Amino acid sequence: MRLALLGASGRIGSHVLSWALTSGHEVTVLARNPGSLAGNPGLQAGSAGLTVIEGGATDASAVAEAVAGADAVLSALGPRGAKTPALLATAARAIVAAMDKAGTRRLIDVSAAGAFIQGDPDTSAVIKFILPRVLAKPFADVREMEAVIAASDLDWTLVRATRLVDTAGTGHYRVRPDFPPIGGGKIARPDVAHFMAAALSDGSWMRARPAMAY
Ligand SMILES: NC(=O)c1ccc[n+]([C@@H]2O[C@H](COP(=O)([O-])OP(=O)(O)OC[C@H]3O[C@@H](n4cnc5c(N)ncnc54)[C@H](OP(=O)(O)O)[C@@H]3O)[C@@H](O)[C@H]2O)c1
């Protein structure tokens, strides 16, 4: 497939890029700093399949250039602190517009389960009180991003990760629609990438919000 990938230099995105190249996909990456992709393990196997567009995810024309001709779009963007306010929602608007223009339908985007904790019937009142206050701004951005994507006609999957950890991937995790599996509170970044690859490959979780945890 021809894939467009945003956030390829990040801790989830680097695993997505590695998987895509070693699986023989053609990948167009949008990166602010192309040098940040150096050292990705997938480059040895499939660097011939990689095209890098230099630009930011809030730049609609750069996003459109990366998405043009893609069969599917994968996004593992993360705000890297508060350097780009409303990064996720702004990028989502650019991605949806670019996909509409290109006629690309499939979008798989990393989201955050914590941003929707208030509606989770299985989370304690204490966590519901604390978490939304501590992470008010990033969570508002995540909710706006989801709203933008869900309002589109695209075949989207919003992957609601629980707390991200940097342990090795296992390929074994639980997934539940909308809210985390009961008792599950964390997921390793490589396993988020693993799930994104699986959802792309088997066309599962269309117009759905799978929440992942161990
Ligand atoms: N932290 C958690 O526990 C948690 C829990 C659930 C969900 N999440 C979600 O997980 C995601 C973060 O995943 P991660 O930890 O893998 O991210 P990460 O390692 O921080 O990587 C973020 C990626 O986004 C890119 N990026 C940031 N701003 C950009 C911009 N303006 N233009 C283009 N690219 C930009 C970065 O590129 P550069 O290399 O150029 O900076 C990098 O590739 C977020 O969406 C967050 O909501 C986090």
Report on the architecture of this protein.
- This protein is 36% helix and 22% strand.
- The chain is built from 7 helices and 10 strands.
- Helix 3 packs across helix 4 and helix 4 runs parallel beside helix 6.
- The protein starts with a strand and ends with a strand.
- It has 214 residues and is an alpha/beta fold.
- The strands form 2 sheets. It has an 8-stranded mixed β-sheet, with helices on both faces.
- The structure holds NADP nicotinamide-adenine-dinucleotide phosphate.
- The site of NADP nicotinamide-adenine-dinucleotide phosphate has 26 residues, from helix 4, strand 5 and strand 7.
Features:
214 residues, alpha/beta, Rossmann fold, eight-stranded mixed beta sheet, two-stranded parallel sheet, 7 helices, 22% strand, globular, binds NADP nicotinamide-adenine-dinucleotide phosphate
Bin the strand percentage.
15-25%
Class by alpha and beta content:
alpha/beta
Q: What is the averaged pLDDT score?
A: 96
What is the number of strand segments?
10
Low-confidence stretches: none
CATH superfamily: NAD(P)-binding Rossmann-like Domain
Report Rg: 16 Å
Shape: globular
Largest sheet: 8 strands, mixed
| Contiguous helical run count | 7
* N to C succession of SSEs: EHEHEHEHEHHEEEEHE
Which CATH architecture is right? Answer: 3-Layer(aba) Sandwich
Strand order of the largest sheet: 3-2-1-4-5-6-10-8
Instruction: Give the helix proportion (percent range).
Output: 25-40%
CATH class: Alpha Beta
Give the N-to-C terminal Cα separation.
30 Å
Number of individual domains: 1
- CATH topology label: Rossmann fold
Bound ligands, named by name, code or SMILES:
NADP nicotinamide-adenine-dinucleotide phosphate
